[in-house]
Amino acid sequence: MGRPLAVWLTLAVLVALMAWPHQGVAAERVYIDITQPNFVRLPIAVPDLQEADSSTQGLGTLLASVVANDLDLSGLFRVLDPKGFLGPEAAPGVTAAEIRFDRWRRGGAEFLVRGRCARSSTGLRTEFRLYDVVAQRLVVGKIYEGRREDARIMAHRFANEILAALTGEAGMFDTQIAFVQAKDGSKEIFLMDIDGENLKRVTGDGSTALSPAWSPDGRQLAYVSYFEGTPRLYAVDLFSGTRRTLCAYAGLNISPAWRPDGEALAVTLSKDGNPDIYLVDRNGRVLQRLAASWAIDVSPSWSPDGTRLAYVSAETGNPQIYVLDVATGKKERLTYHGKYNTAPSWSPKGDWIAYSGMDKGRNNIYIIRPDGSEIRQLTHGEGDNEAPTWSPDGRMIAFSSTRQGGRSAVWVMLYNGEGVKRLTRLPGEQTLPDWSPRIRR
User: Fold this and answer.
1) What gap in Å lies between CA 286 and CA 267, rounded to an integer?
2) Where are the domains of the chain?
3) Which of 155, 283, 293, 388 could potentially form a cystine with 354 if both were Cys, beta carbons 3.0 to 4.6 Å apart?
């Protein structure tokens, strides 16, 4: 399997070396209230970082483009066209004393990212600063050191800092998305950054691997594989590459979903005849049966507090989504709109459940309140849209879609259905995305 998720290993050497003056004061102000319905994207300029010499040639452009793409992806910023930075306002200058804020303001910028990069003993040293153009003040600044190949990670890190400083909420730009890559008759699990870059292969069995599911600490990935003939559940440690068998009971072993505490998983097993949802510990030992009916019960998704479980059952004749109270065993049908609703995904804030529902012969993404109220349709027949998964801040949804060219790819959008962007552009098809949590370090 090589070195899966090596990106997380390198993060340990990226050290923020400097806390800039007045940073604490600036952090007290929340510039963006993302809860306001009339929110307007903030205009921000992200010109190329300065390069110390020929050894860093091209990195200034790369670093700026990663930050700009992250900010655009967030839906909170209007990144200004870099072609407008070719005048005097783009002259060298990183400190506040060197910057002509009035010129940036006339160019439409309310915020400005400046920085520089240079060769260091570890490979690369990058310096980033975010300025409030209107107030002519520094908001946040960081220096990172690490390997040259970690340049993208440094940029993602600073985009996180920008989001935290301006919204009061941590960013998620250094998270990853697992997905299934179908090509040449096999299906393997891959990982990528949230901008579609830094592709890593997790499985390589030449068989069928499905349903990747991140553990809450981001260290393990549970998944289904047929490489030993029958569908079994496995877990791979993404730091060491070690794979172990989770469940290999007779019949089906599918649909893994880690409980939020990381100590157990909800899975679908047919060991007792009917495919029902069971609770198993980290080693696959059955603790209890959670959901059972005469029909197939699959696709569990935990509420953030671990007290409830959304899942799919066809007990009324067609697949519908139900919510189970784990303590009492009481279940309630959640979806009544449409005859075919699948793939529930509970938002990290607990306020929505995303799912895929069939409408006029097409699968679309919907969100619904956990009490069954306030259904919102996010996609509208642009191909088939399936398998929604939430970003750890609850503001974005990744999903698979056939909207371009008829082949499934992984896309992302804001939770209101806006800002749809394609992430994967690979041969074959990419399906079943699962967004990682924020990694605890």
Assistant:
1) 10
2) 6-167, 176-435
3) 388
